[in-house]
Recover the amino acids of this structure.
């Protein structure tokens, strides 16, 4: 499934439908065949009616009609099943490709989306494909073919009755045209109001707890109540406007019987139409135009699918996915001419730096000054406006996530841990890491005792751990996870902020000893961290000054 | 069905307009009987009106159908009025639920209730009820015609329809089981997807998006398969029933033929019966789909019913006389597990009380009970001599501040989130509270300071910072009773001291109940209550408990 950002909704739909080159045509062919077979019981019924009037037996016609009904349902079921297989397969593949797109999306772009919004696009908007693929195709075939066949049969029985039965059609179409005038704008306006009401309700439900705690829930409810009242008023207006025309359309579109019966009776009285033909013609005409009626309602549903597909496309890859590769031991980390601005404000411009293996750098500077951003450029969370970090002189931006992650690991102030055990989370980077190594690293971050005291130890569920661990303990777990990645570069971005002084000192020392050749880039607001640095970078107002660190010993 | 009636009555809106519309639309659906009866009358008797008279009758009938059809306005506006009133009433119900039900986990569930479930309920009323009712009237009238013309064939037709009717519940059971499985996979999938999205920055940093993407992809395949199972169960059921329904026609044709041969039926009567059978069956085919949908939607109704009948608290009540607290025989269980058992406790106005005990002893739950977060099983909680039933939540929360790390933040600026505690607070009072609670460094970090937006439920704030927001709110609120769930382990030493200072300032001259996780902060409180397994086992001052209570000694030693 190669959906890209720059496709139109219809291009995307064609690409999506091409994903099922066999099932869809087979399904449509089966549906077509089923519609053809559906005519057989009607013909049998007509012939049986004629036979009855001349005293001939009807058993044969009955059996043919029954057989045809069963055959038609078998064909139809097979077609519908095929088309469902296709639809669910397609939806699953579209979702899979969206998940892959998300996995490859730059983190900076990912942050533009609300989590709930992403979830809605991947789950709900893709589901909108189901009616289009699984129902509309078959519905359209059935809805077009059946009235055509029945009309033809009616003309064969008596052409005058056929003409009369079709008479409501132009009238209904006229009403339809009048009715649909300005419909799109009204529909858009209506959708807008519904969306606003839902937004207001969502905000109310989200904040009702705190509102109630401070006794302001009454105000909040009044506001929502106003939004709901205006929504309700609009809905009522909309319904009133729409229904008059809609009822007219539906009534006229199904009026064939009212037109046909008087004529049929007159013709029968005049002796130019047999009783059998007249009654069968009435039966055929009674519901003949109904499938066409259903078709007109499809238009709105199809356009909804188009809108949903449009929303999906904005998640699809914008540019070529980076797949660059580097496989050599790290000799030097540097950055050249590095510039970054965020929210229109320049954080730093033209930075050039260099670090050799085994060095620890501590970054200092006012909060909001760009320390974290400088390191996030290295860990791939941000993309520079200009310049790049260099590994042995190779730019980092073209590297794939997998490749870059073999060089850089990081722990930050707030860590994400996924559902699973502590061991699962520690093994994130290296799934086959030996258990003894996990314990050794837990020792380094001073967590071994705590984890050993848990009943399930390393197998303790992470949800439980998150509840029983303090913020500082979770931070140390994140540092342990980053250490276990065994990368030549480690970033600790305020990763010790919740630790007390003594523990921070111990952890920073242990982390240094764990891999003496590792480049360690540390942001900490405490002065004691600086004492462990080989270099100190101070970022003030976009200017970076480098000073040699003074080691404790 | 009684649940539907309950919800309709619960909405408080008049149902008259709605039912009037439904009856009108049933009338409109019945009008096509006029041309049919004209035709049957002629076929059976050979007599009829003149041509122009026939046309006139048909034209009048058509006009009547259009006019009756216009009552759809009543059924639609009536339905929307009902669902609008119901939505409003349910929101009022939600407002009166205990706070524990309003925060945290239940949010997603409540959002689903108020959006998709309520939408389904609205759709039943506005579309399905009328269409289903309309689909029944013509088949009924036609079945009567068949009975009148030939009782034998009438019985046959009725029997055939009954078989179908009895098949429906059997097929439905299959359908509901598949629907439950599909629903479960859908929920799991949504949760896994949300976790995946949340973890993406970390996973990408470690180059291991596969770790969560692989199980998610597998889940997507399960969702597909469960969806197909559901379609198969529902689809084959509907196909089977409609197929059997349509086979009624050949059956009537053939049996009619037999009756014809035995001179028990005239050829004209055969024609009428055949036509009536076709007209009877056609609308019923759509009914099988309606019943499946209505069943499906009834489960939404059941969930809404659950919401409408959930425990509620009164909102308005009397002002309390004083701020002393009394708990008498209070028991609480959550999810069927006993959490608190027979707690008796009185707290004088101005007293400082601390709750201690091993984790899981029920300390925080006791605080929650005093704050009215849960509906209790037994016993009474009184503030100033009044139970919550007489006090109402408005008065309760006017008199108490609850300080916790689980503070709820709403979309808006930090300023909005603080000023909610006291909208009349002056700028200087706000600045003082921000400084006292140690929030000034958060303000400094946000690019727009106090007016910086907090993002999705304040994700940008750490646990300690959220607790400080809670303290600042309590300082601004200045309520006479303070409930304090103390979490200081997430703070560094320097900040911890600042926060403790702020808490001391907050507690001056108030009635205070503290859940203490660190015993060194409560050595000087007036009274310490020791909880164990949901029971209040001992109370007294620090030195007394250290001498008497084994549990307290163990806690004290562990803290060292």
């Amino acid at each position: 499934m190669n959906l890209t950002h720059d496709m139109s909704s219809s291009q995307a739909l064609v690409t999506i439908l091409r994903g099922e080159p066999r099932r869809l045509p087979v399904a449509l062919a089966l549906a077509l065949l089923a519609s053809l077979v559906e005519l057989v019981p009607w013909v049998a019924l007509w012939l049986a009616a004629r036979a009855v009037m001349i005293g001939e037996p009807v058993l044969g016609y009955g059996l043919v009609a029954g057989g045809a009904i069963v055959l038609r349902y078998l064909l139809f079921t097979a077609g519908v099943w095929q088309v469902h297989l296709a639809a669910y397969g397609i939806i699953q593949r579209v979702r899979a490709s969206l998940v892959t797109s998300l996995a490859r999306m730059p983190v900076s772009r990912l942050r533009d989306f609300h989590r709930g919004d992403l979830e809605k696009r991947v789950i709900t908007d893709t589901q909108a494909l189901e009616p289009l693929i699984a129902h509309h195709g078959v519905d359209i075939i059935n809805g077009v073919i059946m009235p055509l066949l029945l009309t033809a049969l009616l003309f064969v029985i008596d052409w005058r009755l056929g003409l009369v039965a079709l008479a409501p059609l132009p009238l209904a179409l006229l009403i339809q045209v009048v009715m649909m005038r300005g419909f799109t704008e009204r529909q858009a306006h209506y959708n807008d109001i519904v969306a606003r009401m839902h937004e207001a309700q969502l905000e109310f439900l989200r904040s009702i707890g705190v509102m109630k705690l401070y006794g302001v829930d009454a105000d909040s409810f009044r506001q929502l109540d106003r939004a709901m009242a205006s929504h309700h008023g609009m809905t009522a207006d909309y319904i009133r406007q729409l229904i008059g025309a809609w009822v007219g359309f539906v009534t006229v579109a199904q009026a064939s019987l009212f037109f046909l019966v008087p004529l049929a009776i007159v013709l029968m009285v005049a002796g130019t139409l047999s009783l059998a033909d007249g009654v069968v013609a009435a039966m055929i005409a009674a519901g003949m135009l109904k499938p066409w009626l259903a078709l007109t309602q499809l238009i709105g549903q199809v356009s909804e699918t188009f809108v949903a597909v449009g929303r999906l496309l904005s998640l699809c890859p914008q540019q070529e996915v980076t797949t660059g590769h580097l496989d050599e031991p790290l000799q030097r980390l540097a950055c050249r001419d590095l510039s970054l601005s965020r929210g229109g404000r320049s954080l730093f411009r033209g930075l050039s730096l260099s670090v050799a293996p085994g060095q620890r750098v501590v970054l200092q500077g006012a909060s909001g000054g760009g320390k974290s951003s400088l390191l996030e450029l290295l860990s791939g969370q941000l993309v520079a406006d200009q310049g790049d970090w260099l590994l042995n002189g190779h730019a980092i931006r073209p590297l794939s996530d997998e490749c870059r992650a073999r060089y850089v690991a990081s722990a930050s102030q707030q860590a994400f841990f996924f559902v699973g055990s502590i061991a699962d989370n520690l093994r994130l980077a290296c799934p086959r890491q030996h258990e003894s190594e996990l314990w050794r690293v837990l020792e380094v971050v001073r967590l071994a005792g705590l984890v050993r005291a848990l009943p399930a130890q390393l197998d303790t569920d992470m949800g439980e751990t998150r509840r029983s661990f303090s913020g500082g303990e979770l931070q140390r777990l994140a540092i342990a996870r980053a250490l276990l990645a065994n990368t030549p570069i480690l970033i600790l971005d305020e990763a010790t902020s919740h630790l007390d002084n003594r523990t921070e000192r111990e952890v920073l020392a242990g982390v240094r000893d764990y891999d003496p050749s590792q480049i360690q880039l540390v942001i900490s607001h405490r002065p004691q961290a600086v004492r462990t640095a080989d270099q100190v970078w101070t970022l003030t107002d976009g200017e970076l000054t480098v000073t040699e660190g003074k080691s404790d010993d | 069905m009684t649940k539907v009636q309950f919800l309709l009555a619960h909405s408080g809106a008049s149902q008259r307009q709605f039912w009037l519309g439904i009856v009108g639309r049933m009338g409109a659906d019945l009008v096509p009987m006029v041309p049919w009866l004209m035709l049957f009358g002629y076929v059976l008797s050979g007599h009829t009106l003149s041509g122009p008279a026939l046309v006139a009758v048909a034209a009048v009938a058509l006009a009547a159908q259009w006019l009756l059809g216009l009552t759809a306005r009543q059924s639609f506006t009536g339905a929307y009025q009902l669902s609008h009133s119901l939505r409003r009433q349910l929101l009022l119900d939600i407002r009166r639920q205990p706070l524990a039900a309003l925060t945290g986990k239940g949010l997603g569930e409540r959002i689903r209730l108020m959006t998709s479930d309520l939408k389904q309920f609205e759709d039943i009323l506005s579309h399905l009820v009328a269409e289903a009712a309309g689909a029944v009237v013509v088949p009924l009238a036609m079945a009567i015609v068949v009975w009148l013309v030939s009782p034998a064939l009438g019985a046959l037709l009725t029997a055939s329809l009954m078989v179908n009717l009895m098949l429906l519940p059997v097929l439905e059971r299959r359908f509901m089981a598949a629907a439950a499985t599909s629903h479960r996979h859908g929920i799991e999938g949504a949760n896994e997807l949300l976790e995946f999205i949340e973890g993406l920055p970390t996973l990408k940093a470690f180059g291991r998006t596969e770790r969560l993407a692989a199980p998610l992809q597998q889940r997507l395949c399960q969702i597909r398969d469960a969806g197909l199972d559901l379609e198969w169960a529902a689809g084959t059921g509907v196909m089977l029933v409609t197929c059997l329904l349509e086979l009624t026609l050949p059956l009537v044709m053939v049996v009619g033929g037999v009756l014809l041969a035995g001179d028990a039926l005239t050829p004209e009567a055969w024609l009428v019966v055949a036509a009536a059978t076709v007209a009877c069956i056609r609308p019923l085919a759509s009914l099988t789909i309606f019943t499946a949908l209505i069943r499906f939607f009834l489960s939404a109704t059941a969930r809404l019913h659950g919401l409408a009948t959930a425990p509620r608290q009164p909102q308005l009540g009397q002002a309390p006389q004083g701020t002393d607290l009394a708990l008498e025989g209070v028991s609480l269980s959550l999810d069927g597990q006993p959490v608190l058992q027979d707690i008796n406790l009185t707290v004088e106005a101005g007293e400082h009380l601390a709750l201690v005990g091993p984790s899981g002893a029920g300390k925080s739950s006791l605080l929650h009970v005093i704050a009215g977060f849960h509906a209790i099983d037994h016993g009474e909680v009184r503030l100033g001599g009044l139970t919550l039933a007489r006090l109402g939540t408005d008065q309760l929360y006017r008199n108490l501040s609850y300080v916790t790390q689980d503070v709820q933040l709403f979309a808006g600026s930090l300023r909005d989130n603080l000023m909610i505690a006291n909208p009349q607070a002056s700028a200087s009072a706000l600045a003082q509270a921000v400084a006292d609670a140690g929030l000034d460094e958060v303000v400094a970090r946000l690019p727009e300071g106090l007016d910086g937006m907090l993002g999705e439920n304040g994700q940008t704030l750490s646990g300690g910072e959220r607790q400080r927001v809670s303290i600042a709110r309590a300082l601004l609120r200045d309520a006479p009773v303070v409930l304090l769930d103390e979490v200081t382990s997430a703070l560094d030493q320097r900040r911890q001291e600042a926060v403790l200072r702020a808490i001391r300032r907050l507690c001056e001259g108030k009635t205070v109940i503290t859940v203490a996780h660190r015993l060194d902060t409560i050595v000087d409180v007036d009274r310490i209550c020791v909880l164990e397994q949901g029971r209040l086992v001992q109370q007294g001052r620090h030195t007394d408990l250290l001498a008497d209570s084994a549990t307290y000694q163990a806690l004290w030693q562990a803290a060292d």
Summary: The radius of gyration of chain B is 34 Å. The mean pLDDT of chain B is 83. Chain B is about 65% helix and 10% strand. Chain B touches chain A through 132 residues (CB under 8 Å).
